[in-house]
Input
Amino acid sequence: MRTMDINYYKWLEVKITHGYFKDDVCEVLKLVPFDKTAVALKNYKILLQKKNNVISFYCGTEAEHFDIKTELSGLKELYFQIINTDPLFLNYTETPSLTVPEIFLFQNFEGSSQLQIGETVSEDDLIETTLTDFNTQYQPNCLGILKLDLDLVLNTISEIPSFTIDFKARKVYWQYQIVIPSNRSIGIQLGEVKDKETHSPNDKIYIKNPELKQLINGQEAQVYTSQFPKKLRQQFSENPELTFSYQSNGTVGLTTQPIKLPTPSAENLEMYVTPNGAEAICATTIVYV
Output
């Protein structure tokens, strides 16, 4: 990359992955430098370029030969806010409940390409904002802090290092509330809801609530709930299927066919009491047949 008489060389990248998204590509988080870091980026001619879920760091130089240790000599640390642009992020993310003044701290470690402590982001990465020096600088949607120790980067650099923040998709019970409009209720019979992606035959069939659920609009729904918590995902290769039977014109008896059910939304989360009495969370989806 070149600007005027300055050549820019890529020397670092940060990747944000999340099991909720297709191919784990999480694009809803962005980096914003704290004030002191913003000044350092300008002074050292460092530019950030975001493409999908990868933030690439470039350093500019007028020198004929690029040496990152020389260009960044004297620069020890960089600090960024991690800004969340999706209001549903914490709904579909397996993280502990954040309470003020808690925030995530992600940082690079010697010999590791991970920026969180464990394999995925967890409560181990939480700190209190009162323990940081940035109390007056946080933006409203700040999810965490990224700290880059450049000594650990530059002293081990043999190629462009790539660091990863990895989030896990949240597991909840899936619940489908199936509504048959009153003008069709006589001609339709509901069968089973089955998973297509579950390998265990015993786990495929959703549990049907024997009681009808009264919806806000006055309609009644037959409720099917998965037997175990399942990961929320933005897309599925094979969605669950509902089998239903109906009276077809010109035929004797009922015609049976499956219909694919929609992907559960992370927006519709409710409290759920499991058959053994435990409190849990379910993602509800209303489906009209």
User: Anything to note?
Assistant: The chain is about 10% helix and 40% strand. The radius of gyration is 26 Å. Residues 2-167 form one domain.
